[in-house]
């Protein structure tokens, strides 16, 4: 997969893309990241990319000219790709969106700075993505989150694809609790069922803990999850026991 990132701060990505899972995915050719600094398309001697908003108001907006010239250049550099703007006004980036983006052979991410984009830039986006209901100083950290989550969905990036399939949200539920050695640590004991090695019992323990965690911590995620009749019966039993 090729990811083009349009930004004023290309250097900010260096370490994130050099290390760990992303670093090896890039070295192994599974992902190609191409950074583009739209400052190079800025106006005049100072390569200006922003200006004050019409109608007044605080801060500066990104002008359409430099960024869209850069975007047009990037669009022409390889095969067609969706143009994704990172903005707090976008649709919420979640595991489902990550999975659908992983199906593309190329995506273009556009990172803003300052108070925002002139609306004529926004008109160039096929979709806007937000990583949460808070305002970052720019889209770069959001772009890193998108690249990181999407790259894990590309076969070969994570050692064993089963580990991706068992991730929180993969099947629409939060992950169940997990333990490693030692079996007892500072008086806290790993649940006996996990130590006993009966796979059917382990699966049922994991499923029920995922269900319970999701129902309690994220009722919104729970409502959208594929929950079976037997899952519901289990939860009703647990809830009754608790009251
Ligand atoms: N740019 C600024 N805030 C953002 C957010 N929450 N998500 C995506 N891009 C952003």
CATH architecture of the largest domain: 3-Layer(aba) Sandwich
Provide the low-confidence segments as ranges. Answer: none
Largest sheet: 5 strands, parallel
CATH homology-level superfamily of the largest domain = SPOUT methyltransferase, trefoil knot domain
Biggest β-sheet: strands ordered side by side in the sheet: 2-1-6-5-8
Order of helices and strands: EHHEEEHEHEEHEHHEEHHHH
Task: Give me the count of strands.
Answer: 10
CATH class of the largest domain equals: Alpha Beta
Please give the alpha-carbon distance between the first and last residues: 51 Å
Q: Classify the beta-strand content into a percent band.
A: 15-25%
Mean pLDDT: 94
Question: How many individual domains?
Answer: 2
Helix content: 40-55%
Bound molecule types: adenine
Structural class: alpha/beta
Q: How would you describe the overall organization of this protein?
A:
A hairpin with a 2-residue loop joins strand 9 (184-185) and strand 10 (188-189). With 243 residues, the chain is of the alpha/beta class. The chain has 2 domains: 2-152, Alpha/beta knot; 184-242, Trp Operon Repressor, Chain A (Orthogonal Bundle). Helix 4 packs across helix 6. The chain has helices spanning 14-18, 20-27, 64-77, 95-101, 119-122, 140-152, 161-165, 192-196, 199-217, 219-224, 229-242, and strands spanning 2-7, 32-37, 50-51, 61-62, 83-92, 106-111, 116-117, 127-130, 184-185, 188-189. The strands form 3 sheets. It has a 5-stranded parallel sheet. Strands 3-4-7 form a 3-stranded mixed sheet. A two-stranded antiparallel sheet has the order 9-10. It contains 11 helices and 10 strands. The radius of gyration is 23 Å and the shape is elongated. Adenine is lined by residues 86-88, 130-132, 134-136, 139, 142.
């Amino acid at each position: 997969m090729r990811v083009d990132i349009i930004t004023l701060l290309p250097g900010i990505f260096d370490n994130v893309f050099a290390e760990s899972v992303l670093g090896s995915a890039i070295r192994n050719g599974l992902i190609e990241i191409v950074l583009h600094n739209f400052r190079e398309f800025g106006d005049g001697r100072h390569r200006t990319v922003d200006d004050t908003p019409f109608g007044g108001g605080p801060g500066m907006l990104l002008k359409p000219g430099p960024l869209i010239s850069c975007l047009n250049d990037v669009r022409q550099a390889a095969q067609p790709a969706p143009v994704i703007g990172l903005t707090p006004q976008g649709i919420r980036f979640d595991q489902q969106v990550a999975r659908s983006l992983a199906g593309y052979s190329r995506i273009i991410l556009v990172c803003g700075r300052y108070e925002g984009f002139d609306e004529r830039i926004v008109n160039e986006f096929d979709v806007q993505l937000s990583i949460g209901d808070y305002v970052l100083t720019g889209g770069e950290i959001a772009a890193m989150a998108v690249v990181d989550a999407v790259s894990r969905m590309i076969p070969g990036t994570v050692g064993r694809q089963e580990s991706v399939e068992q991730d929180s949200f993969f099947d629409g539920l939060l992950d169940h609790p997990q333990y490693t050695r030692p079996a007892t640590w500072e008086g806290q004991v790993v649940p006996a069922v996990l130590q006993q090695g009966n796979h059917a019992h382990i699966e049922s323990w994991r499923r029920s803990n995922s269900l319970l965690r999701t129902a309690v911590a994220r009722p919104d995620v729970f409502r959208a999850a594929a929950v079976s009749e037997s899952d519901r019966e289990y939860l009703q039993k647990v809830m009754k026991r608790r009251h």
